[in-house]
Amino acid sequence: IRIVRGMIVADSVRATLAGLEVSGQGRLGLVPERSGDTQLDISGSSLVGLRPLLMGVPDTVVVRDGLTDLERDLLRIQGVDPDTLPAELDVRLGGRVAGAATLSGHVGDFDLGLIVDVVDGRYRQNQVDTLYLALTAEELPTRTGSWEVGASARGILWEGRAFERGGFEADMLELDGDGRVEVVRRPGERYAAVGSFSIDSIGGEVALAEGSAQVDEEEWQLLRPTRVQWDESRLVVDSVEIARQGEDPMRMIAGGVLARGGESDFAIDVQGLHLERLMDFLQLPDPDIGGHLDLTLGLTGPAESPVIDGQFAVVAPRYETLELTRLTGEMNYVDRRVVFEVEGWDGLRSAVQMDGDVALDLSLQVVEERVVDEPMDVRISADSLDAAIALGYVTALEGVVGWVTADIDLAGTPTAPQPEGSVHLFDAAWSIEAIGVRHQGVEGELRLRPDRTVDVSLVASGPGRSEVSGTVLLEPFADPALRLRFDFERFQAVARPDMEGAITGGFDLRGSYRRPVVQGALTVDAGTIFVDELQRTAGVVDLRDPFLLADGLVVDTTALVSQPLFAGLTNPFFDNLRVDVDLTVPRGSWLRSIDTNAELSGDLLVLYDRSADDFVLIGELQALRGSHRVLGRSFELNGGTVNFIGRPGLNPDLDIQASTRIRRPNDSPFRVEAVVGGTLLRPDVTLTTEETGLAEEDLISYLVFGQPSGALGAGSRSQVGGARGFGTAAQGAVTFIGGTFWNQFGSAIAQELGALSLDYVSVQQGGAAQALGEGGLVGADTQVELGRYVGDDLFLIMVLRPFDTGPQDQNTVAGIRVEWALTDDYNSEFFFEDRFLRSSTQLLGSSSGLLENQRVLGVLLFREWGYGAGSDPPDR
């Protein structure tokens, strides 16, 4: 770099400035008589180096996010409070930049041309995927010259609001200019404005010539040009009028003066505003607010003590789950007092009213507290308000019916309120889907006292009876203290597809709303656990996921059994609920499944912590009587235990003994003992007998065929050999591999046969998988199903056995089925097929050759039932 006769001359420059690579060449004059031109290229893989310039913090800064406990302790030793460190988003700066710049003139008066591309830009909480900026400016370094700016961006996140793309163009001379802006939030949602602007040292002015907003099929327009002016003390709006035309019109007119010092005179009139559209435009999804708003509001008087009058009406108002037909109200604010009246309508009937006088500071100046701690007088009343509206905030309740009557006076001050009155609930009922129960005949009263305690009395008479009594202390109001007692008499506590139960006893509810604790003792009057439904609802598992397989391809079901008792209930109460209850299980409680039917009795300790996702049972139940099926044979229970050892979920250890008598054609009967071990969701069965000379293979043969294995043919002995290890990991591996192979194979050929107009192709193995050494994965029981729709309600299926090599292989076409949908709930099936085609155990099928494979003709009729909770008890 040289200075030659009043000019800075750079033949070739390459430098690093704040982490950016700058290179170029040219000349720039030092005095007006010497002018020159300079070209620069700018690039950088990170903008972090600009952090000191843009944020006033160093390039490298320690943030509190992600600090380990050790790092926090070390900072405290050094006298640094980790909580005072900035968050990562507060100092975030990043992105890649590339661009070029030209400078012409001299240092006291030069022109600038700049083109910049930014990719993956980050600035604090804001970000942009791509940004293009083009700028030309004259007579720099002053701001009075001519400027032209153009910018476009995609993937914008600004102040927590997301936009698909946006663009801006402006021409400016001496800080006055014209501009155009367009923003697209998503396809079908677009905002645009055209106007002029003027800026000075104390304020500015924007004159909008055009403005529009389009959201799907709806469009809003600025009806006439308007002007907005501002300075240090006031804002002046020149009659802004926005309207939406069509069958559901909207109109808003606003204008006047809002002054921080001096007199104000401002008015706004809104008709037909969709509140949900306003929330969506502001990108404020929470809280969920809806309805059509009409509003008239006027503000006059000095800034320190304005006078505000307003009236509003909302058609179909909605707040979260609370809904009314209409909500109307009016308010008057004078001398820091608000006098208001609000009335809610349910149909043509006035359902809730609220009026009062409250102290507030709504001045247009900056104040520390808007709520003034002075006496208030508020009255709330409800006359036969629909309980579904009053209890709408309790999201766990569904199908709510009943009525609420209330009469409450609220005195005292905002910091020390003194409520007094009562709330009555009568003829109420509701359902709790998570536990499958509908509570009916609910009557209750809440009595509020000036010391902020609420006396609670609530009774539900069906099914069974429950009572709630005690007090709630509304201090603090956001987290009331709970002192409640729950008593039950044969009360239906749960009626889910996987369990049912009625209880007697009681428990205490202590703690607070956000940290409740339940302690007590309950007795199960009648309970049933349906194991098959419990297994079905435990989780849907992808058996191809290698992380679920261990110990020889046996699925680890302990990952599947932690089914939350209160799944679907989400609020601070249920999120932090803790339970410690002694549970007595007398006679009359059952464990039922396809194979098991056992009556249980004993004592359990129930421990539950929702925040830790931990539900465990500790104790032991005795198996009193019942039966268990093994290979189709019913065994009578002789005793045993179901032991809950604190394993998460409902999956106890089993130790149950059962026996059955086997009759022999030419010999005396003998007894077979079965020991059911393992766990509830993964049981193991061991067979023994005191009869000498009988191996396990013979016991299985007797259970299946009624004769020893030596009396069977070779094909049947092969099947018995396969059944002999029915609880082993080896067969589980063969079944898993074979099933996966045929599922994948069926999917593949279904795609290839698409040209044959087939709607359904399935390839599967009927019955148990064979050992790899006895037929491999292609067994004689492998069957192929081909299906096709004939119309909307008729479906035809042909079942083939292409690999049947047994003596009855004449039935290669194993069956034909016709399915006919009679209605949405009723379906019928007509079939002509091999007798044993649907048997889960193909020991008597065609490949064994024991029985002639006869054909049968049949008709099946199906009706679909669903489980759920609604206004009526669910069908079963």
In short:
With 876 residues, the chain is mainly β. It has nine helices and 47 strands. Helix 7 (696-705) crosses helix 8 (714-724).
Please tell me about this protein's structure:
The protein is mainly beta and 876 residues long. The strands form 3 sheets. The chain has a 39-stranded mixed sheet that branches. A 6-stranded antiparallel sheet has the order 42-43-44-45-46-47. Strands 33-34 form a two-stranded antiparallel sheet. It is extended, with a radius of gyration of 39 Å. The model is unreliable at 538-569, 723-752, 766-778, 840-851 and 866-876 (pLDDT under 50).
The rounded distance between the terminal residues' Cα atoms is 91 Å
Q: Estimate the mean pLDDT confidence.
A: 80
Helix amount: under 10%
What assembly state would you assign to the polypeptide chains in this entry? single chain
CA gyration radius, whole angstroms: 39 Å
Number of discrete helical segments = 9
Largest sheet, strands/sense/barrel: 39 strands, mixed
Structural class: mainly beta
Low-confidence runs (pLDDT<50, min 5 residues)?
Answer: 538-569, 723-752, 766-778, 840-851, 866-876
Percent of residues in β-strands: over 45%
Shape: extended
Tally of extended strands? 47
Q: In terms of topology, how is this protein built?
A:
Blueprint: E1 2-4, E2 7-17, E3 20-29, E4 36-44, H1 51-55, H2 69-77, E5 93-106, E6 109-123, E7 126-140, E8 146-158, E9 161-173, E10 176-186, E11 189-199, E12 204-215, E13 218-222, E14 226-230, E15 234-244, E16 250-259, E17 263-274, H3 275-281, E18 289-302, E19 307-319, E20 322-323, E21 326-334, E22 337-346, E23 349-359, E24 377-386, H4 387-390, E25 398-413, E26 416-432, E27 437-448, E28 453-462, E29 465-473, E30 481-496, E31 499-512, E32 515-530, H5 531-538, E33 549-550, E34 554-555, H6 572-575, E35 578-592, E36 596-609, E37 614-630, E38 633-645, E39 653-664, E40 667-679, E41 682-689, H7 696-705, H8 714-724, H9 729-752, E42 760-765, E43 782-790, E44 794-800, E45 813-821, E46 826-834, E47 855-863
Helix pairs in contact: 7-8
